[in-house]
Amino acid sequence: MNSFPAEAISRxxxxxxxxxxxxxxxxxxVERISPxxxxxxxxxxxxxxxxxxxANVARNVAALGGHVTLVGVxxxxxxxxxxxxxxxxxxxxxxLIADNELHTTLKxxxxxxxxxLLRVDFEQHPSQASLDAVDAALARHMANHDIVVLSDYAKxxxxxxxxxxxxxxxxxxxVLVDPKGDDYSRYRGAxxxxxxxxxxxxxxxxxxxxxxxxxxxxxxRADLDLEALLVTRSEQGMTLxxxxxRDHTDAQAHEVFDVSGAGDxxxxxxxxxxxxxLPWAEAMGWANKAGGIAVGKLGTSIVTASELAGxxx
Length: 313
Description:
By secondary structure, this protein is of the alpha/beta class. It has helices spanning 6-9, 54-63, 78-89, 128-141, 161-170, 197-204, 210-224, 262-275, 280-294, 305-312, and strands at residues 13-18, 20-33, 40-53, 67-75, 93-99, 105-112, 115-122, 147-151, 175-178, 192-193, 228-232, 238-242, 245-249.
């Protein structure tokens, strides 16, 4: 593979729209079991907040050297304030809509000795007025960006995803979608959809051979009028389906520590490489390398341009 095109990527402009959340980690030690119930007592020693969901996609775009604008919905609360602060620190241009009726989506994880012991989620769907504001923000920013990324975590910001795709398509701007659920008709007309293995099984059923997967993937791609469909398959690598046929790349031989957020890294890498015009197969190769690095890190994390440049040397 050629060297990582960092200089070209520094001129890329990516618009990320979707479910913004805060990933909160409490790290501690477990030394005893609670006398109140048969559960471990975690003595918290360190706390850390990280951008999650669509915000983690945007953070990865920035880490790879791209210019990124993030559109999402936050509550007027402490978690929302943390997201805004972290986005600014990461170099993300935020257009984050404040919803007074909403609690910012928050995933709180408690870890003892680097093992996750508990996760607590706080979430609710945004108001119709906030969705109107998302529509308006996409229309406002689209002309100044090379590519649109829709990051769907089923938290409600992409409830009107069909109209968002239509807006971008009518403007001639490519749309990459990280999907959720089994109703892929919502994503009709996108440029690329990137289901993982289990999401693909939800959409088309289980397959018993590569030939069967290829047949079902190409039929789904044709039905949805997609330019390409990328199935991320964990230890089996990634498989791209397009008019040119099937293209596969094996997984990178990294130790897997934590897969959370790796899909965000893959999506961000695809966005910046396609924004500068790399072919699908080459973009997939870089995304595969980035995903391999991401799973070797704890929690939602970023992969930098220098790390990918090191992978190519």
